[in-house]
């Protein structure tokens, strides 16, 4: 197994980078976020995961070790191959994935192309006990990607004990009140009123 590659970046395309290692150019498949950090001619170190198939050897590269471990863990869920695991990391950071899985947030997972409602539920079911809690500065009360006020209100409701599904409905119900500069506290109160009526 190739655990990492280090060397000058020879080329960067839309889906991969070529890193020169000992006179050999290794093509490494990367997410757009990782590719954006690479510059042709500059040295780079990428943790890697090799996927071996009958007809190919594919090297996937990552921004850090956490992303690599998340990529490998995602593939242990049925129906998740390397391409889908990489797509998940292209859309969601490892901590966002952990947060979505830990809070049964199928809506966030279905933002990934190729994951439907049933697929998201299966991933949550299979990985919830193994993926662990968010490791960075992000906690369940912190906003995740998307409209910041929506995520803050949603996470606030989940933190207060409402299910992710009920919280999502309440956020949708108060969305028309958001305006140009949303008052998060006011929207959270309005969402709570919506849920108490239901």
Automatic annotation (TrEMBL):
Ranges where the Helix-hairpin-helix DNA-binding motif class domain occurs: 72-91, 107-126
Kindly state one GO CC term assigned in the UniProt record: Holliday junction helicase complex
GO biological processes: DNA recombination; DNA repair
Q: Where is this region: Domain III?
A: 145-198
| A Pfam family that the UniProt record links to this protein | RuvA_C
Q: Which UniProt keywords apply?
A: ATP-binding, Cytoplasm, DNA damage, DNA recombination, DNA repair, DNA-binding, Helicase, Hydrolase, Nucleotide-binding
Against InterPro entries, the record matches this protein to: DNA_helicase_Holl-junc_RuvA_I (IPR013849), Hlx-hairpin-Hlx_DNA-bd_motif (IPR003583), NA-bd_OB-fold (IPR012340), RuvA (IPR000085), RuvA_2-like (IPR010994), RuvA_C (IPR011114), RuvA_C_sf (IPR036267)
What Gene3D superfamilies does the record tag this protein with?
Answer: 5' to 3' exonuclease, C-terminal subdomain, DNA helicase RuvA subunit, C-terminal domain, Nucleic acid-binding proteins
Location in or out of the cell = Cytoplasm
Q: Which GO terms describe its molecular function?
A: ATP binding; four-way junction DNA binding; four-way junction helicase activity; hydrolase activity
Keyword ATP-binding in record: yes
Main location group:
cytoplasm
Q: What is known of its domains?
A: Has three domains with a flexible linker between the domains II and III and assumes an 'L' shape. Domain III is highly mobile and contacts RuvB.
Q: How does it assemble?
A: Homotetramer. Forms an RuvA(8)-RuvB(12)-Holliday junction (HJ) complex. HJ DNA is sandwiched between 2 RuvA tetramers; dsDNA enters through RuvA and exits via RuvB. An RuvB hexamer assembles on each DNA strand where it exits the tetramer. Each RuvB hexamer is contacted by two RuvA subunits (via domain III) on 2 adjacent RuvB subunits; this complex drives branch migration. In the full resolvosome a probable DNA-RuvA(4)-RuvB(12)-RuvC(2) complex forms which resolves the HJ.
Q: What does this protein do?
A: The RuvA-RuvB-RuvC complex processes Holliday junction (HJ) DNA during genetic recombination and DNA repair, while the RuvA-RuvB complex plays an important role in the rescue of blocked DNA replication forks via replication fork reversal (RFR). RuvA specifically binds to HJ cruciform DNA, conferring on it an open structure. The RuvB hexamer acts as an ATP-dependent pump, pulling dsDNA into and through the RuvAB complex. HJ branch migration allows RuvC to scan DNA until it finds its consensus sequence, where it cleaves and resolves the cruciform DNA.
Return the similarity comment: Belongs to the RuvA family.
Q: What is this protein called?
A: Holliday junction branch migration complex subunit RuvA
């Amino acid at each position: 197994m190739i655990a990492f590659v280090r060397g000058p970046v020879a080329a960067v395309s839309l889906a991969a980078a070529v890193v020169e290692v000992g006179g050999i150019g290794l093509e490494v498949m990367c997410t757009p976020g990782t590719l954006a950090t690479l510059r042709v001619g500059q040295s780079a170190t990428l943790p890697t995961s090799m996927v071996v198939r009958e007809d190919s050897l594919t090297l996937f590269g990552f921004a850090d070790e956490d992303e690599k471990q998340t990529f490998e863990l995602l593939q242990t869920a049925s129906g998740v191959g390397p391409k889908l695991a990489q797509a998940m990391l292209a859309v969601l950071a490892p901590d966002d994935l952990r947060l979505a899985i830990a809070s049964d947030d199928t809506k966030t997972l279905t933002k990934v192309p190729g994951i439907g409602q049933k697929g998201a539920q299966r991933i949550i079911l299979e990985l919830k006990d193994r993926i662990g809690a968010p490791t960075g500065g992000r906690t369940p009360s912190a906003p995740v990607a998307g409209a910041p006020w929506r995520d803050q209100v949603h996470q606030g409701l989940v933190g207060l004990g409402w299910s992710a599904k009920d919280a999502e409905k309440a956020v949708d119900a108060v969305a028309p009140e958001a305006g140009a500069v949303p008052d998060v506290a006011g929207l959270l109160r309005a969402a709570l009123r919506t849920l108490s009526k239901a």
